[in-house]
């Protein structure tokens, strides 16, 4: 029995040595893994920050798209208004020219009532160096 007890004590010591050795190996392995865990944790933080920034940028991009569509709409309205204004200005200029011509003819007729102004009526225009009736 003494031998069995001594054998069990010896086995117990070997088991303790083996546990100690394995715990030392585990500590060494953990020491090797620890920097990688820190790197992984840092990378996870950076990914979360990048995702938050992306979400903000996507929100801003959406806002800019809305603003762009509003500006495009306003620009289209202003271009259309400019086209109408350009046409109106052309018509106004033509009307002013006609009124000015009539006014000049009236003044000329007032200054010299005997002159026949019918050849210069606004219904005539110059064609091949001659005043001809518009048709």
Summarize the structure.
It contains one helix and two strands; from the N terminus they run H-E-E. The protein is mainly alpha-helical and 135 residues long. It starts with a helix and ends with a strand.
Give an account of the 3D structure.
The protein is mainly α. The chain has one domain (2-111). The chain has one helix at residues 2-111; strands at residues 124-127, 130-133. A two-stranded antiparallel ribbon has the order 1-2. The longest helix is centred in the middle third of the chain and has 110 residues, at 2-111.
- Give the helix tally: 1
Q: Strand-and-helix sequence, N→C?
A: HEE
Count of discrete domains = 1
Which structural class best describes the helix and strand composition? mainly alpha
Fraction of residues in helices? Answer: over 70%
The biggest beta sheet reads:
2 strands, antiparallel
Instruction: Give the overall silhouette.
Output: rod-shaped
Strand order of the largest sheet: 1-2
Through-space gap between termini = 142 Å
Radius of gyration: 50 Å
* Strand residue percentage: 5-15%
Number of DSSP strand runs = 2
- The mean pLDDT is 83
- Low-pLDDT stretches are none
């Amino acid at each position: 029995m003494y031998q069995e007890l001594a054998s069990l004590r010896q086995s117990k010591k070997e088991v303790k040595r083996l546990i100690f050795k394995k715990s030392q190996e585990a500590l060494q392995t953990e020491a090797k893994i620890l920097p990688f865990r820190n790197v992984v944790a840092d990378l996870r933080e950076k990914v979360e920050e990048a995702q938050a920034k992306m979400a903000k940028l996507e929100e801003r991009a959406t806002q800019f798209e809305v603003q762009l569509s509003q500006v495009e709409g306003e620009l289209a309205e202003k271009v259309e208004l400019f086209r109408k204004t350009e046409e109106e200005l052309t018509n106004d200029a033509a009307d002013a020219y006609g009124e000015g011509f009539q006014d000049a003819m009236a003044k000329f007729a007032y200054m010299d009532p005997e002159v026949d102004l019918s050849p210069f009526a606004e219904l005539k225009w110059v064609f091949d160096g001659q005043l001809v009736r518009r048709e």
